[in-house]
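Here is the promised in-class demo. Please do not try to memorize the tokens; focus on the logic of going from shape to residues.
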């Protein structure tokens, strides 16, 4: 090997920020449980579970991957059949690619995650967005789906091949009326995909109750799993297409390219599952909602404004923060990040002072109180 290559930078890499309190929406629901941390160490070698595989990943009996994927996971998701994927976006792409044909239309909410749009684009589909209401609500009107379907039908002569709704969206944490959307799209014979990346594993969720034909979830965002990993749920009506096996190798499902999440990812999901199952019970989720609403109220008392649903029904929230923006004009745009970092509070991106989003999931009232106190101290320090 060349002497010019600085090998020292390829050794152990430590995260530079102590995360005593983590408010990052991408991480709060994915923080590993103690059991998952143990599984990560035990199963971190390559594709470790492949030692036990006879050719079909989801049929491995020991460790209990078969029982998890074919029994526990469908029951938990409220769907007929389930699979693990390499992320929610991979689940969305697999569903679109298997169900839709090139040139078909898909209707999505105006709050859709970019990966939903990219999944459709990769599947060579056309996309029509249902407009969201203006600031500060940014809500999705279920009737917008009917309007969008009618417009596509009028211009093409056909209804779209799929509808997608984001529940909740990753910007404002809004929870649209999925049941109403399902009734509307099904009245046109259009199947519904629910992107539950910030729902599945955090809150009560049941695909059949919502009226979903397909669901996509994220393990590393919301199921206390080492990523990347996601989940896919499908009804029996559409399972033959989504889970179709290869004509070249009868053991391998086409859309998963034969196998998906294996090794540490699937094993940490299984290890965390009892805790995830418990925390999604209605009474536990209600405590999370109460904490989120309390936290929002405290920030608004300091001159900030929470956008989106009010009262809020999710841990993910978006705030306008003029008080910090005004301070940044006199200090600099990174002052807030530095001040929070010095207090071991992580999750608000560097440079954001005019607005930011965060999550209160799993943080707890005591730690949220510490964040509130930190904000007050920072404001007093710079306004003095």
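The designed amino acids, position by position:
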């Amino acid at each position: 090997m060349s002497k010019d290559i600085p090998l020292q930078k390829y050794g152990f890499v430590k995260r530079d920020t102590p995360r005593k309190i983590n408010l990052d929406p991408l991480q709060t629901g994915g923080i590993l449980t103690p059991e998952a941390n143990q599984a990560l160490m035990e199963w971190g070698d390559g594709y470790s579970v492949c030692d036990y595989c006879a050719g079909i990943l989801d049929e491995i009996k020991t460790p209990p991957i078969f029982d998890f994927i074919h029994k526990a996971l469908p029951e938990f998701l409220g769907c007929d059949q389930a699979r693990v994927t390499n992320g929610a976006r991979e689940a969305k792409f697999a569903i679109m690619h298997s169900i839709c044909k090139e040139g078909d239309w898909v209707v999505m909410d105006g709050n859709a995650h970019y990966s939903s749009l990219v999944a459709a684009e990769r599947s060579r589909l056309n996309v029509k967005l249902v407009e969201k209401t203006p600031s500060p609500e940014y809500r999705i009107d279920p009737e917008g789906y009917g309007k969008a379907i009618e417009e596509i039908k009028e211009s093409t002569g056909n209804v779209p091949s799929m509808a997608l709704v984001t529940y909740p969206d990753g910007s404002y944490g809004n929870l649209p009326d999925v049941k109403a959307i399902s009734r509307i799209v099904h009245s046109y014979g259009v199947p519904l995909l629910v992107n539950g990346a910030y729902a599945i594993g955090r809150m009560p969720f049941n695909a059949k109750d919502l009226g979903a034909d397909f669901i996509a979830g994220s393990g590393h965002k919301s199921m206390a799993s080492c990523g990347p990993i996601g989940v896919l749920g499908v009804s029996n009506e559409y399972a033959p297409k989504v889970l179709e096996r290869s004509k070249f190798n009868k053991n391998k499902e086409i859309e998963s390219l034969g196998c998906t999440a294996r090794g540490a990812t699937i094993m940490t999901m299984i290890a965390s599952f009892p805790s995830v199952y418990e925390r999604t019970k209605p009474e536990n989720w209600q405590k999370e909602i109460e904490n989120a609403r309390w936290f929002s109220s405290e920030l608004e008392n300091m001159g900030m404004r929470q956008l989106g649903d009010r009262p809020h029904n999710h841990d993910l929230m978006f705030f306008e923060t003029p008080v910090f923006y005004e301070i940044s004009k006199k200090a600099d745009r990174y002052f807030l990040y530095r001040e929070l970092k010095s207090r071991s509070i992580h999750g608000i991106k560097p440079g954001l002072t005019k607005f930011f989003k965060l999550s209160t999931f799993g943080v707890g009232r005591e730690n949220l109180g510490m964040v509130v106190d930190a904000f007050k101290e920072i404001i007093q320090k710079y306004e003095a």
